[in-house]
Write a structure and sequence with these properties.
The structure is a single chain. It is built from 13 helices and 22 strands. It has 579 residues and is α+β, with helices and mostly antiparallel strands. The protein has 3 domains: 1-55, no CATH class; 151-198 and 314-455 and 498-578, Purple Acid Phosphatase, chain A, domain 2 (4-Layer Sandwich), CATH 3.60.21.60; 202-308, OB fold (Dihydrolipoamide Acetyltransferase, E2P), CATH 2.40.50.140. It is elongated.
């Protein structure tokens, strides 16, 4: 048999035999085995050119035809399954469309026909349905974003705050050296798990708003030494002081002519129009609780809410070394690709700078991403999210930093409700480095109070606020409203994309005190500002469309209270940096 194999292998050098291998798509070793089997059935047929032609006619041609018929049948079955799937999806879309109102533009998927060929991207998706996702590529079309790769200004500092000159942006030498991190309210009194929603009644919403008016009203009464508030509906000849909530007289945008003041039940519970013509300066938004002093419905004096009590930490919590905190907000992919290159670049920054704490805010799997909306992924959204988080945890293991994950309303794998419960990650429950918190929340980091929210309240309030004579710094006005209204989302009614549960909002959406640092990411321009003693940071988003965005970093240290009693900000320095 060995001599026969050697002889046949030598004959394979013959052009005719090589041609047989190529035409029948068969390897040399496979052809040897086929010839051994064939010659055995022919009583040890000798290897000649005539025998090879007979072998090709009786064995190889039949084998080739069998393969071709199998391929045709397999292709036919695959094409039939694809068309059946497309028809089923179209029927489902038509059924859903019959229960919904028309949206902007048609989102229906067109059938593939010779007149309307399939796009290259869709063809690539169907051609590789089993493509495994990797930390750098979470989509079947693993094409990196060209604009993100060609971005300029990498690592450029665009905003500075505090004494940044000579600042060493690095964490402590020891891994996670004694960083104290906990929720201000404690785990028992914080939103720690999912809850049932979409069951609230209008009466319950009204009760929450009424309690909000009464609670802030008591603070205003004490702060401005007001004896009592007058009913808004009773006519009066003298100047009166009234308490209420700002609202609009229609469903449109608030303006100076459409302002109404809605009083609580103790002040009559009615809505009255407000004349702002005699006010020299004002800044109002729907849902704001204010005190107005004037005659009839003419406002002459507008009083803001009482400021918070700032957080104070005892001297036993003083930290000897500053704490380095990195802050980043999603999305973590460019808009034209689902490759997580920006996230990998952020992990490289964490490994290089070695911060003590990383505050990572969603969205991690962005519901507004084009490929997510069209479901052009090969795994479930939960699986993609788990891979994303595991990449962060594994990639920063050598640093030993604490990781805080904050969900977003735009995370497609999570509950679409506000306040939003923390993520559920059973695989990471035992990892002491990982902390899962709700949106919003108040966090203590080495005794420094952080207010965290991933909801873009800056953008929402900026579209509704009206002002006159208050200067051009709109960001500071809105941030001051949040701090003085003691709420992470004081706007009422909320924008349509915020699904508010007011009973949970009353318990978990308020600011128990003015935080030392407020992290408030937004689509608006990044900044770091000191607003009434609170350092407010908008780190921007890690990606802006198809290009890279920004992240933030802070150096904090809680110091002992000075002898004169004045409050000293624990934020030593802060920067916003391009990824």
């Amino acid at each position: 048999l060995s001599l026969l194999l050697l002889r046949l292998r030598s004959h394979l050098l013959c052009p005719s035999v090589v041609e047989q291998c190529i035409c029948n798509r068969i390897q040399a070793d496979e052809m040897v085995l086929e010839w051994v089997a064939y010659s055995t059935t022919k009583n040890g047929l000798k290897l000649t050119m005539d025998a090879l032609e007979q072998f090709e006619h009786e064995v190889l041609n039949k084998k080739s035809k069998s393969k071709q018929s199998f391929r045709k049948e397999e292709t036919h079955n695959r094409t039939r399954d694809i068309h059946s799937l497309i028809r089923a999806e179209e029927e489902e879309e038509n059924l859903l469309d019959s229960y919904s109102t028309p949206a902007k533009g048609s989102q229906k998927r067109a059938l593939t026909t010779p007149e309307h060929p399939q796009s290259k991207r869709s063809a690539a998706i169907l051609a590789s349905p089993g493509l495994l996702l990797s930390p750098a590529s979470f989509s079947p079309s693993a094409t990196p974003s060209q604009k993100y790769g060609q971005r300029g200004g990498k690592g450029e500092v665009v905003v500075t705050f505090g004494a940044v000159q000579g600042t060493r942006w690095a964490g402590r030498k020891a891994l996670g050296a004694g960083v104290r991190l906990e929720l201000l309210e404690g785990s028992e009194d914080s939103l720690s798990s999912s809850y049932k929603y979409m069951f609230q009644r209008l009466r319950d919403v009204r009760n929450v708003l009424t309690e909000k008016i009464e609670e802030l009203g008591e603070g205003l009464k004490t702060h401005f030494n007001i004896e009592e508030f007058s009913p808004v509906s009773l006519p009066a000849q003298d100047s009166i002081t009234v308490l209420g909530q700002v609202c609009c007289d229609s469903n449109g945008k608030l303006n100076a002519q459409s302002v109404l003041l809605e009083a609580g039940p103790e002040q009559g519970g009615q809505q009255v129009p407000v004349d702002l013509s005699e006010l020299k300066e004002y800044s109002l938004f729907p849902g704001q609780v204010v005190v107005m002093e004037g005659m009839n419905t003419t406002g002459r004096k507008l009083m803001a809410s009482k400021l918070h009590e700032h957080s104070h930490t005892s001297s036993s919590h003083v930290i000897a070394e500053p704490t380095n905190v990195l802050v980043a907000c999603g999305p973590y992919t460019p808009s034209d690709s689902l490759t997580f290159d920006p996230l990998l670049d952020l992990i490289s920054v964490i490994v290089r700078d070695r911060p003590d704490v990383c505050l990572l805010l969603g969205p991690f799997v962005d519901s507004k991403h084009d490929q997510i909306e069209k479901a052009q992924v090969t795994e479930t959204f939960e699986a993609i999210f788990s891979r994303c988080v595991e990449s962060i945890v594994d990639g920063t293991k050598s640093v030993g930093c604490r990781l805080v994950f904050v969900p977003s309303q735009r995370d497609i794998n999570h509950h679409f409700i506000y306040p939003q419960p923390p993520f559920t990650l059973p695989n990471l429950n035992k990892d002491q480095r990982v902390t899962l918190v709700p949106d919003p929340c108040t966090l203590l980091v080495d005794g420094v109070t952080f207010g965290l929210t991933s909801t873009d309240i800056l953008f929402h309030m900026g579209a509704e606020e009206i002002s006159c004579g208050t200067g051009s710094d709109r960001f500071s006005r809105i941030l001051k409203h949040m701090l003085t209204q003691r709420s992470y989302y004081p706007l009422y009614p909320p924008v349509e994309e915020v699904n508010m549960d007011y009973e949970k909002y009353q318990s978990f959406g308020q600011m128990p005190l003015t935080p030392d640092v407020l992290i408030i990411p937004s689509e608006l321009r990044y900044f770091v500002k000191d607003v009434i003693g609170c350092v407010c940071v908008n780190p921007g988003r890690l990606t802006k469309g198809q290009v890279g965005g920004t992240y933030g970093r802070l150096l904090i240290q809680r110091s002992a209270a000075p002898d004169d009693g004045k409050r000293v900000s624990p934020c030593l320095a802060a920067q916003v940096v391009k990824i």
